[in-house]
Amino acid sequence: MRAAALLAILLATACGATANTAGDWKPRGDVRMIVPFAAGGGSDLAGRAIATALEKAQPGLKVTVENREGGSGAVGYSALLGKKGNGNYLLATENAILSLPLSGQVSFTRKDFTPVAKLAEDGGILVVKKDSPFKTCTDVINAARSGRVSVGMSGAFGVDNVIFTMIEQKTGVKFQRVPFESGGELVPAVLGGQIQVALLNPGEVIGQFKSGALRGLCVTTDKRYTYPEFADLPTAKEQQIDVSYVQFRGFLAPGGLDGRERAYWEQAAKGVTKTAEFQKWLKDNYLQQAELYGDDFGKYLEQLDTALAPVLKKPS
Question: Which SUPFAM superfamilies does the UniProt record give (predicted)?
Fold first, then answer.
């Protein structure tokens, strides 16, 4: 009996040691959050908001944001690719993680990274400057049928490219694309007449909307915004343009992490949406909270990847 009792104690001790070992990983020193686009755009705002919320959700955690722009996001993603197995690095991700590989411009895919969390969704608004002759998205399509319409994009393979490609496929028109590195560069480009139309997130244009410098033509969400500042804007579908697409906001870790590192970051991510800082970012930038973690986020990426494949075919 004494032997059986001793065995039970040893087994319990061993199980406890295993459980503690599985949950004792923490980042060593500062964590680096890579933002694969320039400062000032929606991706930069998202990365900084998530970094701040992570610090609030995990007392003692320090997250430093680093902009690694270039190649429509490829430079930043490639930087994370080189940190395989290093749990001290993160990346503020959005739809470029899928559109870049589908474009055939990079060698990596979503499978090379560790999906941590999808936290929010960000809709798009087609905007023009206040004195533009375009009053609706239908006006833009009609103009493109008979002439040149220049459209700006924050990255040649970003969400803007996806939406404009969808519009082209649905309507048969062709736009003249003018790529920029971030949404922050698109606003002055529209205001300065370098481009006629841009697709921007609400948070990127709210100041110009309030001042009257920019006007919205339609939104690319399934339903109209409930935010009063944008509630009057019709959807593209309401204007007989059968397109809807949103940009997700979240973060990845490098590939090759072990179970303890994955568990730490997924748990940390679940605390992000509970912070006042994150909720303020949602409200200030007119986003919708939309959460998926770990494997569920990975499945979402797989499904979206499949849906995007017909839109962004690799060059033959």
Answer: Periplasmic binding protein-like II
